[in-house]
Amino acid sequence: GQQVMQIPQYQHVQEGEDFTTYCNSSTTLSNIQWYKQRPGGHPVFLIQLVKSGEVKKQKRLTFQFGEAKKNSSLHITATQTTDVGTYFCAVSNDYKLSFGAGTTVTVRA
Amino acid sequence: NAGVTQTPKFQVLKTGQSMTLQCAQDMNHNSMYWYRQDPGMGLRLIYYSASEGTTDKGEVPNGYNVSRLNKREFSLRLESAAPSQTSVYFCASSEAVGLNTEAFFGQGTRLTVV
């Protein structure tokens, strides 16, 4: 089965608000990746985290890898309609790339 | 630079028919992957190929076969299609060397089995 669990499955956000989506594992991860898939599109790589406690920012998106390397989060500030889509976390292990079930984000204007 | 190219984009099959989904990448990547995407299930790994000449089962391999024809091409075959295989199929590739594990995806194949 899938190695990582993502919560929530759905996130309905008012435009301008912030939200966070989480990715959790029962085992220690060597790395974690985040992807975004727009409706009708294909997944597109956003970022990779490797180090314990690592924090990376991309404009309004902040990605964090937990100290124990068992969880990760994606925080989006001031949500815009362009943020609509499904956000996946993924883990790479021995050339095998496995994805979580994703968080689907909708935005109310 | 085309990236990852999948064919066909859409396909309708009758139960029991067979077909092959084609995937090719022009980035000289070592690893290639086939996923299926169903509502609420995310991306589930069917098969992957760590390098030319090798293939391994993923999470949901039953009913599928794959061929890593060369470094560029990785095909997925349904020998006897079933309605449960109705899904969107994505091919992806990755350099998969050291920390370079970013995956690039094709546009997807929407398959309906009736």
Description:
The complex is a heterodimer of chains A (109) and B (114). Chain A has 109 residues and is mainly beta. Chain A is 0% helix and 57% strand. In chain A, the strands form 2 sheets. In chain A, strands 2, 4, 5, 9, 10 and 11 form a 6-stranded mixed sheet that branches. In chain A, a hairpin with a 5-residue loop joins β7 and β8. The termini of chain A are far apart. The mean pLDDT of chain A is 94. With 114 residues, chain B is an all-beta fold. In chain B, 0% of the residues lie in helices and 52% in strands. Chain B is built from no helices and 11 strands. In chain B, a hairpin with a 5-residue loop joins β7 and β8. Chain B is globular, with a radius of gyration of 13 Å. Chain B starts with a strand and ends with a strand. The mean pLDDT of chain B is 94. Chains A and B meet through β5, β9 and β10 of A and β4, β5, β9 and β10 of B.
Helix amount of chain B, in percent? under 10%
Number of strands of chain A: 11
- Overall shape of chain B: it is globular
Shape of chain A: globular
* Radius of gyration from the alpha-carbon trace of chain A, in angstroms: 13 Å
User: What's the main sheet of chain A like?
Assistant: 6 strands, mixed
Give the SSE map.
The complex is a heterodimer of chains A (109) and B (114).
Chain A: E1 4-7, E2 10-14, E3 19-25, E4 32-37, E5 44-49, E6 55-58, E7 61-65, E8 71-76, E9 85-93, E10 96-99, E11 103-108
Chain B: E1 4-7, E2 10-13, E3 19-25, E4 31-38, E5 42-49, E6 56-57, E7 64-68, E8 74-78, E9 87-94, E10 103-105, E11 109-113
In short:
The complex is a heterodimer of chains A (109) and B (114). Chain A has 109 residues and is an all-beta fold.
Task: Quickly list its features.
heterodimer, A: five-stranded antiparallel sheet, 11 strands, 0% helix, globular, B: 114 residues, four-stranded antiparallel sheet, 52% strand
